[in-house]
């Protein structure tokens, strides 16, 4: 059983399925994708979790190229602007190619899940020695989710697994999305915001999706986000004001929404690709396999899936 239908959980289930095994995937959400989440405005998908993905490892490069060939993903940009609240936009910085998806990043997880048995929404309560999931035995269990959520599910009898997760720190993020009738800011793809107690990153959704829509997605600073998790909508005015200040926007948006991520990403990732002990309870996700990102989550889940194939056979 795989608990968690983000890209790590689905990559694990995909590896098991391709090897002729029959995993069951459970997820408490109403859609697949986990933190590669998409919110719909009208009929238009908007990425509110991960903003993009990069590809460095040869295995993930191959997967990415396949998505691009089939029109599921596209190269977005290798250049972001830099900005501060005091001085606004201050030039650009170049890095690896960032990829986006026409149907939102969640569509890539859904495509990867083709042929995999997924049950959702299904809220798992406890994983115990056996392994057993809510009283039902399994040959192995995978928890593909943020460490704090995995800890909530692990029985006190799974001492080794709980110890692996006990000391990690995960940071929250509030994601604000705002739409205008027409663009009110300079042409750009995304912005790394420095010296701000409120903002860290802004994505131009029209550029990311390639349709020119006048929509921005702003990610709030983790410390600021932590102070407003109980009432995220109350943080919207301050986030919007900082966004308008950074980009020099003088026209108010037509609409605003805020998404709360209580455990958005780990403060520090592990170098190990996954954990799988004698209890046959595996742990995977973007907290594993190096720097936290979409690629790391995929590789973590895939590697754990292949290890499970070896052990189960």
Mean pLDDT: 95
Whole-number count of domains: 2
Q: How many runs of DSSP E, i.e. beta strands?
A: 18
Question: Roughly how much helix do the residues carry, as a percent range?
Answer: 25-40%
Biggest sheet strand line-up: 6-5-13-14-15-12-16
> What is the H/E string?
EHEEEHEEHEEEEEHHEEEHEHHEEEH
Could you walk me through the main structural features you see in this protein, from its secondary elements to its overall organization?
The structure is a single chain. With 313 residues, the chain is α/β, with parallel strands linked by helices. It has two domains: 1-50 and 105-168 and 268-313, FAD/NAD(P)-binding domain, CATH 3.50.50; 74-102 and 171-266, Alpha-Beta Complex (Polyamine Oxidase, Chain A, domain 2), CATH 3.90.660.10. 29% of the residues lie in helices and 31% in strands. The protein has helices at 7-18, 58-69, 106-112, 147-153, 159-165, 205-209, 222-226, 232-247, 294-312, and strands at 2-3, 24-26, 38-41, 44-47, 73-84, 88-101, 117-119, 127-128, 132-133, 136-137, 141-144, 170-179, 190-193, 199-204, 215-220, 255-266, 275-276, 281-284. The strands form four sheets. The chain has a seven-stranded mixed β-sheet with strand order 6-5-13-14-15-12-16. Strand 3 and strand 4 form a beta hairpin. Helix 1 runs parallel beside helix 9 (294-312). The mean pLDDT is 95.
């Amino acid at each position: 059983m795989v608990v968690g239908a983000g890209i790590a959980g689905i990559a694990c289930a995909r590896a098991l399925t391709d090897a002729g095994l029959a995993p069951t995937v459970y997820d408490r959400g109403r859609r697949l994708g986990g933190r590669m989440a998409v919110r719909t405005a009208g009929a238009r998908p908007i990425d509110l979790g991960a903003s993009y993905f990069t590809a460095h490892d040869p295995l993930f490069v191959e997967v990415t190229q396949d998505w691009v060939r089939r029109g599921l993903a596209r190269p977005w940009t290798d250049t972001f602007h830099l900005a501060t609240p005091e001085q606004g936009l201050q030039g650009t910085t170049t890095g690896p190619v960032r990829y986006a998806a026409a149907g939102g990043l969640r569509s890539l997880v859904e495509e990867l899940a083709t042929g995999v048995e997924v049950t959702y929404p299904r809220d798992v309560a406890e994983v115990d020695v056996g392994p057993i999931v809510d009283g039902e035995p399994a040959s192995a269990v995978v928890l593909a989710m943020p460490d704090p959520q995995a800890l909530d599910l692990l029985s006190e009898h799974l001492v080794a697994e709980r110890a692996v997760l006990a000391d990690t720190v995960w940071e929250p993020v509030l994601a604000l999305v705002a739409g205008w009738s027409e663009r009110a800011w300079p042409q750009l793809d995304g912005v790394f915001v420095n010296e701000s107690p409120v903002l860290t990153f802004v994505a131009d959704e029209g550029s990311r999706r390639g349709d020119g829509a006048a929509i921005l997605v702003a990610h709030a600073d983790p410390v600021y986000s932590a102070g407003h998790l109980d009432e995220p909508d109350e943080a919207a005015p301050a986030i919007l004001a900082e966004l308008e200040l950074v980009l020099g926007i003088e026209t108010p948006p037509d609409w605003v929404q805020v998404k709360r991520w209580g455990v958005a990403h780990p403060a520090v990732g592990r170098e190990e690709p996954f954990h799988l002990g004698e209890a046959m309870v595996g742990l995977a996700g973007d907290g594993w396999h190096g720097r936290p990102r979409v690629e790391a989550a995929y590789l973590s889940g895939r590697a754990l899936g292949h290890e499970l194939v070896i052990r189960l056979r």
